[in-house]
């Protein structure tokens, strides 16, 4: 009986993880097609990044809502709804005749992933024993981390030999598989709650994320100030709603926990690295090195595979020996690898990028999932859904911010440096990478201080 429960738990995680896998796969698969799509739809570098940003923005808004949805509806029903939305998104993008329809498809995919991702971690946090939590969270990250590994190559092969539309077509059988596994493994457990949806909080958080991303994407224009004002207003609305509502969208009291806050910050910087490099490398290979979409995807696959494989292994290390060693060692390796790649970008070819990417992804594999595990270990059982929502919401938002910031920095340098396109793209990429590296340095200092305390291991 116990064995059957463990098998169903793993299959439930797998089923919800497959949808997250598909979402991230398309996200990174499409990144190698950006130069092609810019030409086909006649849009700029700053505009094309909305293929990624709109997807991550919708997830960032949907994930906080998931905390309420999980209490309100059976997990099985939420899972089915997410599958249907993802299928609609795939069809919309596969048949997209315009850039607007392409973004609409990404909207539906973001909605589905925004439900599936917290659903997967909710199942782990609710049903997995505490002594296996690190391993199970690592398994969840393995499922979603494999996608960046094969996404660029998957997208490169299809867009080079066929058309970018086929990227979406071939995912339909995978979504069907997810539905079949989920219907078997995810039970129909009735739920009872008297909580009401915090509509004011939902409006506030929508304004925050939408305004912030529009602000970052339009830093060069006068409208950036208006978007900044929207962000601030949204933040005030969300904060007030969280204080006044007895059942807030997200319980912000969690952010008062210093350790939770610090591990969350370090986790988000890792996410910024993963999404930032997925934008930088394909554009660098194709614009600076005149490589193909296939080549730009191929250079990222070895490092991404290593990072994905290390996720459950590092989770097991956490369960056996604690969080200190995998997290601190992982961040150090990450900073060394990222720093070398940032420094030598422009003087190295594809092989050098592969080596640098592999090195820093070893570090990401050691620390990334463990940062979420140790962060969630700071949260009481009654606030697990809120902690899960905060991690998953800000994870996707950090990815959107990273893509937007990197795109803006590169775009600004391309327009204002008076250098040739190849040289300005390289310089912009290096500046963006050094900016993210500095943030990781701050995260490392914070983690080091916490783990230096006798009570931390």
From TrEMBL:
Pfam annotation, one family: MFS_1
Main localisation: membrane
Stretches that traverse the bilayer: 7-26, 46-70, 77-101, 107-125, 137-157, 163-185, 197-216, 222-241, 262-285, 297-315, 327-345, 351-368, 389-411, 431-451
Database matches in PROSITE patterns: MFS
GO cellular component terms given for this protein: plasma membrane
InterPro entries for the chain: MFS, MFS_dom, MFS_trans_sf
Subcellular location: Cell membrane
Descriptive protein name: Major facilitator superfamily transporter
Organism for this UniProt entry: Pseudolactococcus plantarum
